[in-house]
Amino acid sequence: MSKAVRSRSDKPRTDEAVRLEIYRMMVEARLFERRVHDLFLQGLVKGTSHLALGQEAIAAGYAAVLQPNDLVYCTYRGHVHTLLRGAPMAALMAELLGRANGICGGKGGSMHLTDVSKGAMGSYAIVGAHMPIAAGAAWAAKERETGQVVVCFFGDGTTNIGAFHEALNFAVVWELPVVFVCENNLYMEYTPIRSVTAVENPAADRASAYALEPILVDGNDPDEMHAVARRTVDLARSGDGPSLVEARTYRHGGHSRADPAKYRPEEEVAEWVARDPIPSLRERLIADGIDATTLDEIDRAAERVVDDATAEAQAGPPPDRSTLLTELWADGGSEWRN
Ligand SMILES: Cc1ncc(C[n+]2csc(CCOP(=O)(O)OP(=O)(O)O)c2C)c(N)n1
Ligand SMILES: [Mg+2]
Q1: Using one digit for the tens of pLDDT, what is the confidence trace for 263-300?
Q2: pLDDT by residue (tens digit) across 93-137?
Q3: With contact defined as beta carbons under 8 Å apart, do 222 and 57 qualify?
Q4: How high is the pLDDT of residue 268?
């Protein structure tokens, strides 16, 4: 019997628990991003915001297999990755709203979400800049023999940036415990990746240039994402070096802010919305014997979590003027670095 049609009784219990956890993470992330969108349209989110609506399965698949001391690097489209790494939702929301109870004191905003205590090592606004940094963190982990794995998320457009190639080369040469995960959502800002790239699969087709296995997965299939996450993180943890994963996905909305994304064909959007990872997993779980009421309860609990986090975030004051020149690189002090 193939895996896809295996009956519930054949499935180890842990699989079921992990799939429910992935479902919960995706639903919370989805409702969080929708709430951010609403607050943005009300003019309450300070600065820009790049949502990962539709792309949740990738971050959730990895979040389900990482250990507490592992490290994650992501891009400006990083709300979901930071949240699923365990950063407190209220503090993330407060950061987007520019409040003092934000995860960076309300001074970083959407593109600088960081929670080092949870291994959420930052969301980087410069395309590709975090890839060599992630490789460096993996090098440190290897030298210090900490057993940590580093996961670095980035977009398809990033594969045409020099830092992508530099990071991959060093990671392979030094056999670093890092997994590079390309979230290929088919677009950069407004440009389709295929119109500016020499190969069809921007990450997977370049893997062989670095002696890596080409790994192309359906980033909208939470089970497949979980399986590839487990395999690549295990490889890194056991000393077998880096992996490069290309996960095909699609963002439901525009690139950022209130971009209506009119540059995308309607049929393409409809096709991908029909492949939304959340209802897909829901249907599959029910087919595998999970009671729909269990999933409804997860949905309702997630609504409460997002409501509570929003209320807590909005109750926070703006950052005090006295914090204007603190926690800066050029603050003249060194206590907070290291
Ligand atoms: C080095 C650099 N060049 C250009 C930009 C402007 N920019 C911001 S996001 C973006 C698109 C990146 O696309 P992709 O890597 O596919 O990520 P996605 O936004 O689709 O997640 C660009 C060009 C930037 N931030 N940094
Ligand atoms: Mg993209």
Answers
A1: 999 999 999 999 999 999 999 999 999 999 999 999 99
A2: 999 999 999 999 999 999 999 999 999 999 999 999 999 999 999
A3: yes
A4: 98
Average pLDDT, the chain: 93
Q: How far is the CA of 152 from the centre of ligand 2 (A)?
A: 15
Q: Is the pLDDT of residue 329 over 90?
A: no
* Residues near ligand 2 ion, CB 5 Å cutoff: 155-156, 185
Rounded distance, CA 209 to CA 169, Å? 9
Map out the domains of the chain with their CATH numbers: 12-307 (3.40.50.970)
- The CA distance from 209 to 199, in Å, is 12
Q: Which residues line ligand 1 (CB under 6 A)?
A: 75, 77, 125-127, 155-158, 183, 185, 187-189, 255
Closest CA to 121 of 51, 172, 178: 178
Please spell the DSSP secondary structure of 68-129, one letter per residue.
Answer: TT-EEEEESS-HHHHHHTT--HHHHHHHHTT-TTSTTTTSS-GGG--BGGGTEEEEESSTTT
pLDDT at position 333, please?
A: 57
37's tokens: 């969108």
Query: The dihedral of CA 232, 237, 238, 243: what is its sign?
Result: positive
Is the pTM higher than 0.90? The answer reads yes
For residue range 5-17, list pLDDT tens digits in order. 333 334 444 599 9
Residue 58: pLDDT over 60: yes
Is 40 within 8 Å of 15 (Cβ atoms)? Answer: no
Query: Which ligand 1 atom minimizes the distance to the CA of 255?
Result: 19
Beta strands 120-124 and 71-75, pairing class = parallel
**CA-nearest residue, atom 4 of ligand 1:** 127
| Amino acid (1-letter code) at residue 146 | T
SS3 label, residue 272: helix
